Amino acid sequence: MTGVWKRLLWLLIAVAVLVVVYVLYVVLRPVGAEPAAPIAGAPAQITDPLARGEYLARAADCVACHTQPGGQPFAGGLAFKLPFGVIYGTNITPDRETGIGNLSDDQFVRAVRDGVGPEGNLYPAMPYTSYAALSREDVLAIKAYLFSLAPVKQPNPSNELPFPFNQRWGMSFWKLAFFDNRRFAANPTKSEEWNRGAYLATALGHCGECHTPRNLGFAMKPGQYLSGEVIQGWYAANITPHPQSGIGGWSQEQLAAYLATGHAPGRSSASGPMAEAVEHSLQYLVPADIQALVTYLRDIPALAGDTSVAVNLKPEGALAASVVAPAQQQDAFGQRLFAQNCVGCHLWNGQGRQSSYASLVGSTASNDPQGRSVVQVILNGTRISIGDHHESMPAFGQSHSDEEVAAIANYVVTQFGGKKGSVTPGQVAEQRKQ
Length: 434
What we know:
Blueprint: H1 3-28, H2 49-59, H3 62-65, E1 79-82, E2 85-88, H4 105-114, E3 116-117, E4 120-121, H5 128-131, H6 136-147, H7 171-178, H8 192-204, H9 208-211, E5 229-231, E6 234-236, H10 252-261, H11 272-280, H12 287-297, H13 316-320, H14 333-341, H15 343-346, H16 372-380, E7 382-386, E8 389-393, H17 402-417, H18 425-432
Antiparallel strand pairs: 1-2, 3-4, 5-6, 7-8
Helix pairs in contact: 2-6, 4-6, 8-12, 10-12, 14-17, 16-17, 17-18
Protein name: C-type cytochrome
Keywords: Cell membrane, Electron transport, Heme, Iron, Membrane, Metal-binding, Repeat, Signal, Transmembrane, Transmembrane helix, Transport
Cofactor: heme c
């Protein structure tokens, strides 16, 4: 045997040993014993056990990934289109045949925090990389709430993954490389409010799963935490306190309003996945928890991220326009399409008619030269419900060509962001697939 083959053999043996050690650790370690958690996920004023579980399930946004459009809540079936295939959210109602009704406390905790379910390793589309920080008490409170719901008999669709991604055992290697299975530890140098915000943002709200860039292994890059990423075609903005490309220029009131209602006056309105997060999760947090999130987000390292999306609060075209007419009449394709399809709600000055949610000035989406979220909202529309208040924009993807969508998006970026849009029909065609 040559030296090269010997080294390869020893490498394979070393990897196999590491996998065995990891599997034994996950399977055999005692999961019941755990030190007291430094943070209780639900507010102290909520004392009923099921009410606490419901609050935590909402803070963790469980319903968003485990409910398909038009389907029963928590019954699964939502498709996640990933670069390597399609994964479906599972049924987490207490049905014993198709749901989680047979899971013990330890099995449920292991699935949520360790990423190991009845079928083996879970794929990181399930954000156990963030949920790992949850306390056992909070995880079991969520379980108690889910088990109080009516069971829904709905079989889980089979994942559509080619070889080797359909081999769950292979996730053991991924976990060895990228999974930090640790509980939340309070920062003694920070305030109680800051630490509560940190727990809500990192463990429960798992903000980093959407807003943090990922590496080739689909793992979050810790050094770029919350600095912005593209998810399902949407641009999940930089939410670090960077003064230009992040939220550093936002006021406390704007940030709190955005988290609680999906709209910050003079700034962005939530759409797409972020609108879903506000609708299903953030709007239900008590004001003190919203403030804790604001405190935490304002006091993390400021990262530049994608500086091309820095918001221009005084775009020349919008400021010079009136409610009824643009600053300069053009025969441009994008302006004509905007006049035909968009101006009735958004107005030429971008302030929005009747609803402030339709405002476009100050929006991160309007200031993205690549127009990623603008394209997505034109193609797919968006909606949000806050209490009894409902806002929506219809989809134009079926009625407009790739060239037309690109022209509208570029006009929006120019008129309301003061930048030159770079959206191409080819980009629109690719985003249609997401």
